[in-house]
Amino acid sequence: ACQHLPPAPNPADAAAADHLLQLIDQRLDVAPMVAKAKWNSGGAVNDPPREQLILDAVTAQASGLDAVFVRRFFQAQFDASKALQLGLHAQWQQQGAGKFSDVPDLGRDVRPLLDRLTPQLIASLRQIQPLLAEPGMRNYIESRSISIVRADFDGLPRRMAVAGLFAN
Ligand SMILES: O=C(O)C(=O)C[C@]1(C(=O)O)C=C[C@@H](O)C=C1
């Protein structure tokens, strides 16, 4: 029985994957705060110069790691954040929502939360990258992500964020 199922990763590798998924979830948890700050300010969700700044920083910090892999991963985190933010904006638009009170400042309060996660994500990617080709690892990551990473908008942002680990 179950011969068709891929093998589960060993406990240490599974724990490393769970840790990365927790960090992905923590980063995605910041998106609603970003969305509120931008809703109040009227600023665009997409900020290519800010993305470029982060990509340049991670490329510099990630020596030894494949630059294409790291950049693809972070771009996927931006794209997941934007999908979540745009979904929230569409919801608030439809509800005729007004400005939110007590929203943290994007530059002073919110982006530092993302910046604090960046080196943790890079450290976790270092651990995970050599394990990604193990049989069963992709399957494990994708199924575990459903329990660990937030599920907004039918899981679209979650799927986008996790897909960034794989080339296709
Ligand atoms: O900092 C912002 O303005 C965000 O919206 C967050 C974020 C990110 O995930 O880091 C996502 C989309 C933007 O294009 C730039 C950066």
Automatic annotation (TrEMBL):
SMART domains: CM_2 (SM00830). It holds the Pfam family CM_2. Pathway: Metabolic intermediate biosynthesis; prephenate biosynthesis; prephenate from chorismate: step 1/1. The keyword Lipid biosynthesis does not apply. The keyword Signal applies. Residues 1-89 form the Chorismate mutase domain. NCBIfam families: CM_mono2 (TIGR01806). SUPFAM superfamilies: Chorismate mutase II. Keywords: Isomerase, Signal. This is chorismate mutase. Transmembrane segments: none annotated. InterPro entries: Chorismate_II_sf, Chorismate_mutase-related, Chorismate_mutase_periplasmic, CM_dom_sf, CM_II_prokaryot. The lineage of its organism: Bacteria, Pseudomonadati, Pseudomonadota, Betaproteobacteria, Burkholderiales. Its EC number is 5.4.99.5.
